[in-house]
Amino acid sequence: MKNSLSSGKETNLLFLQAYDYIVTRMDRGEWKAHDKLPSIRLLAQELQVHRLTVFRAYQLLKQNERAYVKEKSGYFVSPCKPEEHVLPEHADAESTRLFTSSSALKNSLSEIQQIPVEYQFSQALIDPNLLPNLFLSEHVKKVFDIYPKLMGTYSSAQGDEELREYLCRYMVRHHNIQLTVNDLLITTGGQQAIDLISRIYIRPLDSILVERPTYSAALDIFRQKGARFIPVEITPDGYDLANVERLMEKHKPRLFYMNPTFHNPTGYTVPAAQRKQLVELAERYRCLLIEDDAIHEMYLDQPPPQPMLTYDTEGWVVYLRSFSKYIAPGLRICAVMGGPSIIKSLITAKSLADNGTPLVNQKMFLHYFESPRMQQHLEKLRIALQIRKEIVEEELASTGWHWVSPQGGFNLWLQLPDFIPVDQLLEDCLRESVSFVPGEICDPLKEMRSWIRLSYSFVNEEHLRDGVRRLIKIAGRYEAQ
Ligand SMILES: Cc1ncc(COP(=O)(O)O)c(C=O)c1O
User: Fold this and answer.
1) For 100-114, what is the mean pLDDT?
2) Mean pLDDT across the stretch 368-382?
3) CA of 103 to the centre of ligand 1 (A)
4) What confidence score (pLDDT) does residue 82 get?
5) More confidently predicted of 104 and 207
6) pTM for this predicted structure
7) Dist. CA 84 → ligand 1 center (Å)
8) To which H or E segment does residue 320 belong?
9) Of these four, 18, 57, 149, 188, which has the most CB atoms within 10 Å of its CB?
10) DSSP 43-92
11) Whether 200 contacts 346, CB under 8 Å
12) How far is CA 433 from the centre of its chain?
């Protein structure tokens, strides 16, 4: 704490670090409700900061109801513990969610997914029964025959070179993108890639552009780093680029986190024509585009447009290509591609985080991904997903709920009538063994209260029909009231 505080360049943010430090100690139970907090002078000494810095931190604690003041006695810990922490300054209409300390560590999506239910519609993941499991188990033995010392070997922090070489060839073949092995880093899933990027690029109060709605776990990561969200609406036609430009000009965001292909949760795809323009905007306004492409190959009919990375010549796109959602979720392989300085910083962050993704996983993935069996697997998956989507749409046809039929991916993004309280519906559904993702957690403004994400990829066909019927029946109770 001493070092980080005393070496921080942005002295005006020191009070946020002091604030975070105090909140963390409260949450650990070191400072309990109604305990007296250290005097400003003492804490300033301990943290080696100016007294005014601690004073501002205490003022913020008071404003966020984490502390209260007793006349002439000092500051005391409040008994209540609100989850969101709002800063007094810098607020404007578009940056609604401000600094949230590390104490607010949260993964709302995983909280819902961990509840065991019979009809699991909150997991945007392939049904494990659709994976070629027998082939995979035979494949494991073969890979160990090729690399007998596999279990006894570390991967480099950057990732297995043989895998990176293969992925370079893959990117040329599929996307005509020329990369070298140095432009690539292997992470343990896309989730880790988002986390590493946040560690490097986001400081408290940095403005970042995020789609509205977006992948909720990414929001949780950014929120935990103290980012200010500048929402960009995503529609079936992509973004309003004039608005994106206005936001970039006004807020000078560090980055724009986007998921432009079979977007999670909506399923929308940003059209090819906008992709080139977005890269031009990123270059002009020096805003890094984080292109999260977790399910590129899960199209139903037509392959999607080429990634934005295709248009990047100046190094303003960081491309995340996770393969864990539909190839072998258990292996958790994601490739991060970008300019040399970005990859270099990410390798450092990766080495600090875990020193490299397990080599066993990388080799398993490489040999499986290369195999002709893989292509057959993808074809079968697309057909299975198409059938599942049709089943859900058929069942929902009579509800009057709204959605735009996605051309790929795992989800339907449904708008329910206003009179259905989605939070209450989720509670009722969980009680009756059905889960879904409430739209609110995917919204950086936390307002999309009549939307839900329904994933049709995880549950088998028969179950899917029964589960959707059960959901409709539960929702129907509100209609009758
Ligand atoms: C858009 C998006 N990015 C990243 C992830 C995380 O992917 P992984 O399983 O590779 O960590 C997900 C998972 O749902 C996702 O939907």
Assistant:
1) 68
2) 90
3) 23
4) 45
5) 207
6) 0.82
7) 25
8) strand 317-322
9) 57
10) HHHHHTS-HHHHHHHHHHHHHTTSEEEETTTEEEE-S---S----SSS--
11) yes
12) 26
R_g of the chain, CA atoms, integer Å? 24
Atom of ligand 1 lying closest to residue 109 CA:
14
Contact 185, 347 (CB under 8 A): yes
Residue list, ligand 1 pocket, CB within 6 Å = 124, 189-191, 215, 259, 264, 292, 294, 322, 324-325, 334
Contact call for residues 404 and 268 (beta carbons, < 8 A): yes
Q: Is the pLDDT of residue 322 over 60?
A: yes
CA–centroid distance, residue 189 to ligand 1 (Å): 7
* Confidence at 3, pLDDT banded by 50, 70, 90: very low
Please tell me the distance from the alpha carbon of residue 261 to that of residue 294, in angstroms, as a whole number: 8
Residue 363 CB partners (closer than 8 Å, separation 6+): 143, 146, 147, 150, 160, 162, 163
DSSP letters spanning 388-412: HHHHHHHHHTTT--B----SBSSEE
Judged against a pLDDT cut of 80, whether residue 2 lies above it is answered with: no
Ligand 1 atom closest to Cα of 333?
10
CB 146 within 8 A of CB 140: no
Residue 215 CA, closest ligand 1 atom number: 1
Token output for 314: 């100046």
Three-state secondary structure call for residue 322: strand
Least confident of 27-31, 114-118, 124-128, 285-289: 27-31
Count of helix runs (H) and strand runs (E) in the chain: 16, 14
Q: For position 8, what pLDDT does the model report?
A: 43
In angstroms, what is the span from residue 239 Cα to ligand 1's centroid? 21
Query: Which element (helix H / strand E) includes 170?
Result: helix 161-175
Q: Which two tokens stand for residue 304?
A: 């999607």
Strand pairing category for 207-212 and 74-77: unpaired
Cα 250 to Cα 233: distance, rounded to the nearest angstrom: 17
Region 41-65: what's the mean pLDDT?
A: 89
At 481 the pLDDT is 63
Do residues 404 and 236 make contact, with C-beta atoms less than 8 angstroms apart?
yes
CA 347 to ligand 1 centroid distance, Å: 20
259 CA to centre of ligand 1 in angstroms: 10
Asked if residue 260 has a cis previous peptide bond (ω within 30° of 0), the answer is: no
DSSP structure class, residue 343: H
State the closest ligand 1 atom to the C-alpha of 194, by its place in the atom list counted from 1.
Answer: 4
Beta bridge partners of 271: none
Measured CA to CA, the distance from residue 66 to residue 51 in angstroms comes to 19
Domains and CATH numbers, the chain: 2-89 (1.10.10.10), 108-128+374-480 (3.90.1150.10), 133-372 (3.40.640.10)
Pairing mode of beta strands 67-70, 74-77? antiparallel
Tell me the best of 186, 210, 292 to mutate to test the pocket of ligand 1, counting ligand atoms within 8 Å of each CB and taking the most. Answer: 292
pLDDT (average), residues 313-324: 96
